Amino acid sequence: MAERRSGAAEGLARLSEWADAHLSLLRSLSTGMAVAGVLVLARSVRLTAKFTSAMDIPAKFVEKNVKLRGKLHHITEKGLEVEHIPISIPFVTAIQRKWQSKGLLLVRLAGVELAPSGMAWLQQELKPKQMIWFQLLGREDVALECLVLVNKGRFLSVCLNEEILRQGLGRTARIEGLHHDSRLYWKLHKRLLRAELKALKKNKGIWKEESHSERIRDRISNNKFVRTLKQFASWFRSSV
């Protein structure tokens, strides 16, 4: 029994000697762990921060095309007014709620020129307080240029940018915020063009209206009376 106690005491003595000899190393390790903890906390705070304006969002989020979650409030001519819903982390989120400000983000459908019928379609399809995802592509003043995704069922999501064009409720436009010569720009632009082409082939929405107008113009121009009237007008101008 005495031998065991002496062995334990000797072990503790050696551990104490090692700690004294490597005190600076232990201090460095504890400092490093503290710094790492601060960095993890800072990252958590950034990920759980609630953005209430476009300028609050870090530039890196836009550059990396981060996808954010939000709750739809209003549909206006300027875009979708969305309340950002950040990632929830226990303790960190509870502290942040005490000082978070209120405000809505203005989200625009990137690469889409919305027709009036498109606005009506959005108001019919989207419900108040509906959860949406918006992928950051660019930022222009107070507005965010985004791909907007809506869940349809448990396993299916629909990109509103493409769906608007697929239904013939808008036209493709330049994707603001992305470099025109970037790979991502042309990848997304091709997706939008393919969606628009489907509506064009099926004469949907604005393309149906335009094709109807073109048929009327063709009938008028091919009318015998109209052709005679044009010839008379041409002869009259030349004779005068």
Question: In short, what is this structure?
Answer:
The chain has nine helices and eight strands. With 240 residues, the protein is α+β, with helices and mostly antiparallel strands.
* Principal-axes shape call: elongated
What is the domain total for the residues?
2
> Can you tell me the CATH topology of the largest domain?
OB fold (Dihydrolipoamide Acetyltransferase, E2P)
Largest sheet: 5 strands, mixed, barrel
Could you characterize the architecture of this molecule?
This protein has 2 domains: 2-45; 49-209, OB fold (Dihydrolipoamide Acetyltransferase, E2P), CATH 2.40.50.90. 52% of the residues lie in helices and 20% in strands. The chain has 9 helices and 8 strands. It has a 5-stranded mixed beta barrel with strand order 1-2-3-6-5. Strands 4-8 form a two-stranded antiparallel sheet. α6 (160-166) runs parallel beside α7 (183-201). The radius of gyration is 32 Å and the shape is elongated. The N and C termini lie far apart (133 Å). Keywords: Acetylation, Membrane, Transmembrane, Transmembrane helix.
